[in-house]
Specification:
CATH topology of the largest domain: Rossmann fold
Number of strands: 34
Strand content: 25-35%
Oligomer: single chain
CATH architecture of the largest domain: 3-Layer(aba) Sandwich
Strand order of the largest sheet: 17-16-18-19-25-24-23-21
Radius of gyration: 39 Å
CATH superfamily of the largest domain: Class I glutamine amidotransferase (GATase) domain
Number of domains: 5
Shape: elongated
């Protein structure tokens, strides 16, 4: 505060003047009735005494008037710093990039988060827009997305900004800037710019400076560089918490190693602490904690102490489970004789270098729980399925699994009581193939160029599926005579694939062709898309292909579902457990924080991005007219009060 401001406000000291005036005021002496006094002529009283403070309402008005006068003198000297655009006289088009990532939850000072300060800055920018200006809003939480397309309706922009909230997403500044430039790059306004409101902590502190490779026609303005200034904020967060074999394994990350000093991780059952262990002083590590008791309890891993971000200090402890595997069911003895090693399907999957475990099993599972570890099951030439196997396989497909049935000679000779229901209503037959060639164009959408390698197959026969069953499937690859070779059908949340050739090299040379690798690659891709990981990254959508209804309860209540790419999707924007109900079946999933988001180091910025020529001016808040009106009102009120409190008979 400047000396002139203090001097102007010092006028308020004169509020003591009305008080002294009221204390020094004298009033008429108190009259005591005395009968003989009626015989004496009336004379003006000379005896007066000091009066107590009277006419308090009048005193209050006069004191308020003095204060208002002081404020009136100081108001032209009071300045309020707020964001404002620098203009060249023409209308402008701005794309406001608001970082709604987890690092923006940090509180540098007081109780205000970085996000709240950034949102306030966006409101000030929108308030400085004029008629003819255009504004767009882009959210920088990964994945970057459009909050509001460019519009000249400032009220719509304010409403969209009001609906923007904090999240635990990672930061995607590069993607947000690309979207922002696209939104304003083609607008008619000559003056266009991208305004960044972020702490710039996107995990790329060693990367290129922000704005160094930008489009000069759409400059970048980092409007609040104080959000990215170096400070003492540190953070530790839990990346995952699993339990298996009577112990809990907690993985954590810290922005700096010393952030773990004096902190420990506790395993809690409600508010009861079951076990704890100290955090090692490292930026990335894990802690093993022994557990005893019932594994069905819902436990949480909690970090003690406080840091810049509280939302990542607590995580649900889930049963440890690796990535979903691929099950291969076949006669390993016959395949070993033919290939001189592992079955050809296992060798082909190894050649594809899939990031899923391949587990050979002797026969199709007959219990539902035995299928839980698999994302796909490839069954070569099965001789039908027992009722128990059919029930387990149907449940496996309904929950999102991919079932591949390679039909051959044994499939057509199923024993009594073994059928392919509910996948096939009729038993397949087996016989010689009228042609050895394949129509490559029919398989191009799924197999690509690999379909051409399946021409001129050497097949000893092929299975034939009943026309009614073929009608229920989609033909992905056909023989040259129009009969199906590869079929696919969606069931529940999963898929059923059929081939009319078995995967044995004794039945045909299809497993030795490049097209066979293309077929397996398409099957693995479908399994990955439909598999349901127990833990996923926050902000990454969960897809529920084939589901009719999905309900979700997240850390802050119900999470709406949306349909995209033909499937219902849930986007977990906050870290923590999500309790889902998919077509009436309950599921539990966990959204985990991204490790790079715990790195609070800001990214470098080119000097041009903080130039005052783009904005950041200081505006004067003129409230003198309001104070002047209040002062006039006080003067009028004083006149009214004096008129109402004048004693009767007193000469005006």
């Amino acid at each position: 505060m400047s000396f002139l401001t203090i001097l102007a406000l010092g006028v308020a000291v004169l509020v003591a003047a009305p008080y002294l005036a009221h204390r020094l005021r004298r009033k008429r002496a108190d009259e005591v009735p005395f009968a003989p006094a009626r015989l004496v002529p009336e004379a003006p009283p000379k005896a007066r005494r000091r009066a107590r403070l009277e006419d308090r309402s009048l005193f209050a008005i006069r004191a308020a008037a003095i204060v208002a006068l002081a404020l009136l003198g100081a108001s032209p000297l009071v300045r309020c710093s707020r964001l404002a655009l620098s203009r060249g006289g023409a209308s402008v088009a701005v794309a406001i990039v608001i970082d709604d990532s987890m690092s923006m939850r940090a509180k540098d000072s007081g109780d205000t988060t970085r996000f709240e300060r950034a949102k306030k800055g966006a409101e000030e920018i929108l308030a400085s827009l004029r008629e003819g200006d255009a504004a767009a809003i882009v959210l920088a939480g990964a994945p970057a997305r459009v909050g509001l397309a460019a519009t000249t309706d400032v009220s719509a922009a304010r409403a969209a900004l009001e609906g923007v909230g904090e999240s635990d997403r990672a930061t995607d500044l590069d993607g947000a800037l690309a979207i922002a430039r696209t939104l304003v790059g083609e607008l008619p306004q000559i003056d266009r710019r991208v305004i960044v409101l972020s702490d710039l902590a996107d995990g790329k502190s060693d990367g290129p400076a922000l704005g160094s490779n930008g489009d000069s026609s759409v400059p970048i303005w980092v409007a609040m560089p104080e959000l990215a200034k170096a400070n003492d904020a540190v953070d530790c967060g839990i990346l995952s918490a699993d339990r298996a074999g009577g112990r809990a394994r907690v993985r954590f990350a810290c922005s700096v190693p010393h952030a773990a000093t004096g902190r420990e991780v506790q395993i809690k059952d409600g508010e009861k602490v079951l076990a704890s262990a100290a955090l090692p002083q490292t930026a990335l590590g894990e802690v093993m904690i022994p557990l005893t008791g019932d594994d069905t309890r819902e436990l949480f891993a909690v970090l003690t102490g406080t840091d810049a971000i509280a939302s990542d200090d607590r995580a649900l402890v889930v049963v440890e489970s690796g990535p979903a595997a691929l099950a291969v069911v076949g006669d390993r003895t016959d395949d070993a004789v033919s290939t001189g090693g592992a079955p050809v399907v296992e060798q082909a999957l190894a050649a594809l270098h899939v990031d899923m475990a391949v587990r050979p099993i002797p026969q199709a599972p007959d219990r539902r729980e035995d299928t839980a570890a698999f994302a796909a099951m490839l069954i070569d030439d099965p001789p039908g399925f027992t009722p128990e196997q059919r029930h387990a396989l149907a449940a496996f497909v309904d929950r999102g699994g991919v079932l591949v049935l390679a039909l051959g000679r044994r499939a057509a000779a199923a024993p009594l009581g073994a059928t392919f229901e509910p996948f096939l209503a009729h038993a397949p037959s087996f016989g010689p193939t009228p042609t050895q060639s394949v129509d490559p164009e029919s398989g191009a959408p799924v197999l690509g160029d690999g379909a051409t390698s399946l021409d001129d197959l050497t097949a000893k026969g092929r299975a034939t599926v009943a026309p009614d069953d073929v009608a229920a499937f989609e033909s992905l690859l056909k023989w040259s005579d129009g009969a199906p070779l590869v079929l696919r059908r969606a069931r529940g949340r999963g898929e059923v694939w059929l081939t009319t050739l078995s995967f044995s090299v004794d039945a045909s040379d299809m497993p030795l062709r490049p097209g066979f690798l293309s077929l397996l690659d398409a099957i693995v891709a479908a399994a990955k898309e439909r598999s349901a990981p127990l833990r996923g990254d926050v902000g990454v959508p969960w897809a529920f292909a084939g589901a009719r209804q999905v309900e979700a309860e997240g850390p802050r209540g119900r999470v709406p579902s949306a349909r995209g790419d033909g499937a219902l999707r849930i986007v977990p924007t906050l870290i923590g457990p999500y309790r889902l109900t998919v077509d009436g079946t309950p599921e539990l999933r966990v959204a985990a924080p991204m490790q790079r988001e715990l790195d609070l180091r800001p990214r470098a910025v080119v000097s041009e991005a903080t130039s005052s020529s783009l904005g950041g001016g200081v505006s004067v808040v003129d409230v003198s007219w309001t104070i002047a009106l209040a002062l006039l009102a006080l003067v009028a009120a004083e006149t009214v009060v004096r008129a109402m409190t004048r004693p009767r008979g007193e000469t005006a």
